[in-house]
Specification:
It is a single chain. With about 140 residues, the chain is mainly β. The chain has one helix and eleven strands. The strands form three sheets. Strands 4, 5, 6, 7 and 8 form a five-stranded antiparallel beta sheet that branches. Strands 1-2-3 form a three-stranded antiparallel beta sheet, with no helix packed on it. It has a three-stranded antiparallel beta sheet with strand order 9-10-11, with no helix packed on it. It is globular and about 35 Å long. It starts with 5 loop residues before the first strand and ends with a helix.
Length: about 140
């Protein structure tokens, strides 16, 4: 899972258009298109990308039409292919959002900080955490 490269998924291209592609680089100057996910997830920006459970989790984001998402997509092959994950979901009271800061802590929780429900909305003042419980015994 932990390769020596940087990956960027979704966002805006150099022309300001919202995209749903994944790019990677080993050098920071030369980039490679590793997937064009037009059939897996919609064009969005502000997604949260987290390495977790030996996979990449792509969480939420703001769709090209400005609507926030709370979709979860997973890649188990370093971002080449993506699947929609319908078995893991956010709580019903979690507001769809993009532009959150995300990290995985030592307790194997995915932590999401703040975020926005739309491009022009105020920052949320929330912290959310969730985890796959089987990972707790796996990592300890």
């Amino acid at each position: 899972m932990y390769q020596d490269y940087l990956m960027v998924v979704a966002g805006k291209d150099k022309d300001g258009q919202v995209v749903n592609t994944a790019w990677s680089t080993l050098t920071g100057t030369s980039w490679t298109l590793i997937s064009n996910s037009t059939t897996i997830f919609s064009k969005k920006e502000g997604v949260m990308l987290v390495p977790y459970d030996d996979k990449f989790f792509l969480l939420g984001g703001i769709e090209a039409d400005g609507k926030a998402s709370k979709d979860i997509h997973i890649s188990s092959d370093y971002g080449i292919s993506w699947q929609t994950d319908t078995t893991r979901v956010f709580p019903s009271d979690y507001q769809a959002r993009g532009f959150s800061s995300a990290l995985v802590d030592n307790g194997q929780y995915i932590m999401l900080f703040a975020g926005k429900t739309a491009n022009n909305s105020n920052e949320l003042d929330q912290i959310w955490q969730g985890r796959i419980n089987r990972l707790v015994s796996k990592k300890q």
